[in-house]
Amino acid sequence: MPFPIKTCIVCSEEFELKPDKPGFANRCPQCSTPEAMETGGKRRMDADERKSISEANEARRQAMRNLLYRKDS
Predict the structure, then answer these.
(1) Bias category Basic and acidic residues: which stretches (predicted)?
(2) Distance CA 32, CA 21 (A)
(3) How many angstroms separate the Cα of 37 from the Cα of each of 10, 23, 40, 41?
(4) C-alpha dist (Å) from residue 31 to 2, 15, 42, 46, 53
(5) 31 in Cβ contact with 22 (< 8 Å)
(6) What pLDDT, in 10s, does the model give residues 7-19?
(7) In terms of pTM, does the model score above 0.90?
(8) Is residue 17 within 8 Å of 9, Cβ to Cβ?
């Protein structure tokens, strides 16, 4: 059974969609490889960044709680 022929949405080249192909089903292997490498490396945060993000999230939660549950008088 032949593999289906797809057209890449990035470079418009035709390619065979094979099982276990890395990346997206609508991109050729050359166009999807760099993106697959980018998602693997996450930047590590230090304690100050984590604390500031946590404080911002807490402020957002508090503001939403005040908007949703305040009594209209």
Answers:
(1) 40-59
(2) 9
(3) 17, 10, 6, 7
(4) 22, 11, 21, 33, 34
(5) no
(6) 988 888 998 888 8
(7) no
(8) no
pLDDT (0 to 100) of residue 59: 96
Q: Output the CA angle 42-29-41, nearest 5 degrees.
A: 5
Q: How far is CA 10 from the centre of its chain?
A: 18
The pLDDT-based confidence of 35 (bands split at 50, 70, 90) is low
44: tokens are 């590590």
| Three-class DSSP category at 39 | helix
Q: Tell the residue number behind the tokens 């969609």, with chain if given.
A: 17
3-state SS, residue 57: helix
